[in-house]
Specification:
- There is one protein chain.
- By secondary structure, the protein is α+β, with helices and mostly antiparallel strands.
- It has a domain at about 70-180: L,D-transpeptidase catalytic domain-like (Beta Barrel), CATH 2.40.440.
- Helices cover about 20% and strands about 30% of the residues.
- The chain has helices at about 5-30, 160-170; strands at about 70, 75-80, 85-90, 95, 105, 110-115, 120-130, 135-140, 155-160, 175-180.
- A hairpin with a 5-residue loop joins strand 6 (about 110-115) and strand 7 (about 120-130).
- The radius of gyration is 35 Å and the shape is globular.
- About 25% of the residues are buried.
- This is L,D-transpeptidase.
- Keywords: Signal.
């Protein structure tokens, strides 16, 4: 009895497939189990290229109503708030050692450029309070410095970056409300 070559090849191929299937089944049954942590739904570790979410600074409770500037002495932060109580900008400030009284104040003077009480060239000065005969207000040093003022000298400036005080300048006109919080 003669076997045709095509039948022989088909038989050998089928037999090889059966052997491969049996070996694969045995291998999957004897493979070591992966650690449980590998199957968890924890997100993969963050890579160096993923930027952390920026910190948010929510508007403090009981900070007033309507369009206003909110200044927190302890947080060293300002919020510019529109008529709908939406924060349009918030930023950090560096304050001198003369602090305004807590509560509602109003902008009474603005000066686009000048010299601050510390002798620095300043811009976008917005004055809103007076303590002991010293005017207190927001401004930016023209040189961009935000150094902590000398504690031995009386200083009522509340300094911020030039970009932040430019926003304040546009926002807080004479008569605008400034709510000072502890």
């Amino acid at each position: 009895m003669a076997i045709k070559a095509g039948t022989l090849v088909t038989g050998l191929t089928a037999g090889a497939m059966v052997v491969i299937a049996v070996l694969a089944a045995q291998a999957s049954g004897s493979a070591p189990k992966a650690p449980a942590a590998a199957h968890s739904s924890a997100p993969p570790p963050k890579s160096a290229s993923v930027k952390p979410k920026p910190r948010t600074y929510p508007l403090p409770l009981h900070s007033g109503v309507g369009k206003r500037v909110v200044y927190s002495v302890s947080a060293h932060r300002v919020w510019l708030v529109d008529d709908g109580s939406k924060v349009v900008r918030t930023y950090a400030v560096v304050a001198g050692n003369v602090t305004p009284s807590k509560g509602l104040h109003h902008v009474f003077f603005r000066r686009e450029v000048g010299v601050g009480g510390d002798g620095k060239q300043v811009e976008h000065t917005v004055l809103f309070a007076m303590t002991g005969g010293v005017n207190i207000g927001f401004s930016a040093a023209v040189d961009g410095s935000l150094a902590t003022p000398d504690p031995a000298k009386q200083n009522a400036a509340i300094r911020a970056t030039r970009a932040d005080t430019a926003a304040m300048w546009q926002f807080a006109t004479v008569g605008s409300a400034i709510n000072v919080l502890p």
